[in-house]
Amino acid sequence: MNLHEYQAKDILKKFDLPILKGQSYENSIQSLEKDLLELQGPPWVIKSQIHAGGRGAGYFKNPFNDKGGVQVVFEKENVSKIAKSMMGNTLITKQTGENGKKVNRVFIEEGCEIDKEFYLSLLVDRNSSKLMMIVSAEGGMDIEEVAKHNPEKIFKIYFENFEEKEIPKELETKLGFTNSQFFEFSKIVFKLIKSFKSIDASTIEINPLVLNTTGNFVLLDAKINLDDNALFRHPEFEYLKDLTEEDPLELEAAENSMNYVKLNGSIGCMVNGAGLAMATMDIIKQFGKEPANFLDLGGTANKDRAIKGFKIIQSDPNVKSVLINIFGGIIHCDMIAKGIVEAVKELNFKLPLVVRFQGTNASIGRDVINQSSLGLISIDDFTEATKKAVELAE
Ligand code: GDP
Ligand code: MN
Hints:
With 394 residues, the chain is an alpha+beta fold. The protein has helices spanning 5-14, 32-36, 76-86, 143-149, 170-174, 179-199, 248-255, 274-286, 303-314, 333-347, 362-370, 382-392; strands at residues 22-26, 44-49, 59-61, 64-65, 70-73, 90-92, 101-102, 105-110, 114-125, 130-136, 154-159, 201-212, 217-219, 223-226, 259-262, 267-271, 293-296, 321-328, 353-359, 377-378.
């Protein structure tokens, strides 16, 4: 689960990390004039809150404005004007794609005079099974560009079991710190590790971490990704989920505890079991088409779930044909076949549909499909079934 910058900063503040005072707004900026009395400036920084990076270098679409999704403002009277111009507007950045993202939330922060910008992130490195810190003195800008052209300027430090260990002294010169700055930097790293562990994060990225002109560290930007598999341990974070940032079809699937991932192709897939669903997508691609989705119905595929699955697939306008691939084990193919037939009738489902059954009661299931006189196509062979679905999508 992704958090907005202001949410991430709220959390990190509780771990005593140096964060500037700010105020967030959702949909409107009504109380801004009053709130501004509490925020020191100039400057003030006005920041669009969307789940995508590169906001500073982005531009707004409607109305057009190329000053970026993060603006530093020196005149108090301009703060609300600029905040208003962002709220409800569509921000396009390197990470949003060409459609951009609608800005429903704006964050206003006390500004800070920057002396130096650093990049700092923590993430779980799956290769080493350790917590990895990535740090660079080339902060603020595109870290991917630094990694590509100047990989020697990026340093990686590993921590075992989230334990605080001394940060290699050589980093002091490599990052250009004085002795006392290095000491302060280490304290920040340890506080971040502590927060990472206690909130069950999968990533925390601070870009930039800055040294301000009075020589203190400040976390100017913060991105947190929480580990979805550990969310059950954190009911306190539930309300942080911004549903407007989620794909509506994926949300609906999640509510029905189905595993659905929206993709961009034209063949809708409904499969039981994640492995079979992956294989189904692979074969579709092999025949030159793209799957419209990944959908694992789960082990309890019945009529209700089939209906929900169909509804989700049907609401994706890109879908031209549907491939249902079921391996009957504990669940019987004939039961699913009845579910499919009833669902197609109930929803008046019109898209071409190919069904492939194997396993328990596959032949009875096939009969149910063939006798339904709904124009459903039943093919036993995985390859042939896929070819047919591909052909029908053309
Ligand atoms: P991002 O572009 O989405 O990563 O958004 P950031 O929060 O990182 O902001 C982009 C850039 O704006 C930062 O790299 C800073 O250079 C600048 N910036 C952010 N806050 C301040 C601030 O308080 N004062 C100044 N002078 N610049 C800021
Ligand atoms: Mn940033």
